[in-house]
Specification:
Elements: E1 11-14, E2 19-23, E3 28-35, E4 39-45, E5 50-56, H1 65-70, H2 76-89, E6 98-103, H3 116-130, E7 137-140, E8 146-151, E9 157-161, E10 168-169
């Protein structure tokens, strides 16, 4: 007896901290949880219908080159290039991708001494300026955690923000 093939159902793929995923499967929704000071970065090429989601932790791999080589998704300066390279392998185009960013909050640092969230956001903006990239939409900073979703069928990015009901389009 043949096994039925189910289609048309969304499959949620969870992207962990210091990780990323890229796909061209329209049935996939990429999701990452607990974006505090970390940044969630999505890219989506509406022509190639390729999307990706990165959950990065820190601004600069200079603090631990060995860790960056082992896990480039941990840092802005190594994670962003890794995300784009993976999307290019699925035929995304740098000049068509739409980028959204969320997170970068001020979490557990009442002294504002470290402010990793702000430093992540600043490092991302410097890197994007160097490569002629623009962020289409962002929800960065504040004092809240966020969950970020990228629907690969539509390219829609939504956020679930702590303390707010429902999801918010980005």
């Amino acid at each position: 007896m043949a096994v039925p093939v189910l289609t048309g159902f969304s499959q949620k793929v969870v992207v962990g901290v210091a990780d990323f995923a890229v796909s061209n499967n329209p049935d996939v929704i990429l999701t990452t949880y607990s974006l505090g000071s970390c940044l969630g970065v999505t890219l989506y090429d509406p022509v190639a219908r390729v999307g990706g989601l990165l959950h990065l932790m820190l601004p600069d791999s200079e603090i631990d080159r060995a860790k960056a080589a082992e896990n480039p998704a941990m840092f802005v300066d190594t994670g962003i290039p890794a995300l784009f390279r993976a999307a290019y392998e699925l035929h995304a185009d740098k000049y068509r991708v739409e980028v959204c960013v969320a997170g970068g909050a001020q979490i557990m640092d009442n002294s504002h001494f470290f402010n990793i969230g702000r430093r992540n956001w600043e490092a991302l903006n410097v890197l994007f300026a160097q490569h002629g990239l623009k962020v289409r939409a962002s929800d960065v900073g504040g004092l809240v955690n966020r969950t970020m979703n990228l629907n690969l069928e539509t390219g829609e990015v939504t956020l679930k923000i702590s303390g707010k009901p429902g999801e918010t389009p980005l």
